[in-house]
Design brief:
By secondary structure, this protein is mostly beta strands. 5% of the residues lie in helices and 35% in strands.
């Protein structure tokens, strides 16, 4: 396990174990870029990637670079360690981030919210992606206030 830091849920893997569909996401993360998986037929973002679009049932997709910013849609603060090994990292925030650059209600991503005052974090807080490089093959996307 990597070095434990308060407020940062530790990455439990050293490799994303990606397949041919998801590898572009992880390659971009290592470069500090956030990608979204968009249906080429109707434009719906499907995240995480699925073999078909839930809107039009299309099967043709393209990876699109996103701005890497968004808004906290919802969150929870974990104050009790789920295991003794997590005692050094609590409390931490986990949230759902509505990503900028996506259509309609927006694509959402679950992530650790870091470098934030947990007492003032609220729904609607503007955030930006920060990548935590865990290994040569894995950079974990997290979000921090803008």
């Amino acid at each position: 396990m990597a070095e434990l830091r308060p407020g940062v849920f530790p990455a439990t893997m050293q490799d994303p174990y990606a397949d041919e569909t998801t590898q572009p996401f992880w390659d971009a993360a290592l470069e500090g870029r956030l990608l979204g998986y968009r249906c080429s037929t109707c434009g719906t973002f499907v995240m995480p990637p699925k073999p078909y679009c839930f809107t039009c049932q299309g099967t043709d997709f393209a990876w699109v670079e996103l701005p890497g910013t968004g808004t906290v849609y919802t969150f929870t603060i974990v104050r009790h360690p789920l295991s003794p090994a997590l005692a050094e990292v609590v409390p931490f925030a986990a949230g759902v981030i509505e990503l900028d650059g996506t259509q309609g209600a927006g694509a959402r991503m679950i992530a650790n919210i870091v470098d934030v005052d947990l007492d003032t974090l609220q729904i609607g807080t503007r955030v930006k992606v920060v990548f935590d490089t865990v290994s040569d093959t894995l950079a974990v996307p997290r979000f921090a206030p803008v």
